[in-house]
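chain below, 89 aa
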Amino acid sequence: MRLEGWHLIIIIVLALVLFAAPKLPGMARSLGQSMRIFKSEVREMKKDGTTEAKDGSEPVEGRVINHPQAGAPESRTGDGTDVPPSTRA
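prediction:
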C-alpha cells in the first residue's frame, strides 16, 4: 500500500481532531487575528504611497541639526583619531 498526499492530509486532520481538539478554537482565533493584522499591514503599505495625512493636515518637513561637539580632552589630537602616549624615553 502506497501513501499518497491525500492520505497524509486525512491522517493529519484525524490526529488534530483526536489530540488537539481542546486547543483548536484557540488556534483558529490566533490564525484569524494573524490574518487580520496581515491585511491591515498590507492596507497601510498601500496607503503609504499617498501624500495625504490621516488627519488631513499637510506633511511636516524637518531638517537635521548637528549636535555641538563636546570639548575634546588634551590627550586627543583633535582630528578624530586617538593616539596613545609615547612610551619611549
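Residues 22-49 form one domain. The mean pLDDT is 77.
thats it, cya
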